[in-house]
Amino acid sequence: MLLPTSRVSLIQQFQTKQPVAYHGESLKRLDFLKDQPLRKAAVLIGFVERKQGLHVLFTKRASHLKHHPGQVSFPGGKQESSDITLAHTALRETEEEIGIFEHQIEIFGQMVELPTISRFSVTPYLAFIHPNYQTTIDKNEVDEVFEVPLEVILDPQQLQSSTFFVNQQTHRVFGINYGRHFIWGMTAQIIQALQAQLVQN
Fold first, then answer.
1. Of 49, 63, 65, 184, which is least surrounded by CB within 10 A?
2. Can you give the residue ranges of the Nudix hydrolase domain (predicted)?
């Protein structure tokens, strides 16, 4: 497996490979959402160049939130009427949640929309974040910002999966352990698709 190790190689590998759909078994329980309107949202997959190689930026959602408290996620949120595009949604939410400004972010790609159980259609955007970024965390939304080496994120052996049955259908969930953090849910679904596109495609 040839992993991207630099800005140039990551852009080349992402842009020269066909987009990959999300794992079918991870979407089974969403069949009831077919033909229903979904609210638009976006997240930012931020890559940071370090001496040790590329890293990916994550947030840990505030523990007091009503929905998904304490869960690891990418910065992002729902589209507002003032957002010109969904890319603007990802940039705005990143600034609001963790204080990284638009001029420190360079978007270079986007992934397929991902429907969620909360009736959102989420578009992930890939971007480089300036390595000297400073964070101003909105404690109403985020408890922590941290980075994970890209080699961990793209290693299929690091990606755990398990299945359970809902309405007589098999549903698959993914997860990655990294230190004291466990990445799962929608974020791990996105990581699985990113692995499929960059590593297995």
1. 63
2. 37-172
- The DSSP-derived string for 184-195 is EHHHHHHHHHHH
Phi/psi at 160 (5° precision):
-85, 155
Based on the number of CB atoms within 10 Å of its own CB, is 197 exposed (0-12), middle (13-18) or buried (19 or more)?
buried
Q: Name the residue among 195, 152, 149, 179 with its Cα closest to residue 54.
A: 149
Q: How far is residue 93's CA from residue 171's CA, in Å, rounded to a whole number?
A: 30
Instruction: Select the CATH number that applies to the domain covering 38-200 from these four: 3.30.450.20, 3.30.870.10, 3.90.79.10, 1.10.10.10.
Output: 3.90.79.10
What the block records as the tokens of 60 is 């840990």
Express each pLDDT in 76-118 by its tens digit: 999 999 999 999 999 999 999 999 999 999 999 999 999 888 8
Go through the chain and tell me how many residues it has: 201
Give me the amino acid identity at 174: F
* Whole-angstrom distance, CA of residue 128 vs CA of residue 16: 18
What are the sequence ranges of the domains in the chain?
38-200
**In angstroms, rounded to a whole number, what is the distance separating the alpha carbons of residues 48 and 168?**
42
Q: Which of 142, 140, 136 is nearest to 60 (CA)?
A: 142
Nearest-angstrom CA–CA distance, 77 and 9: 29
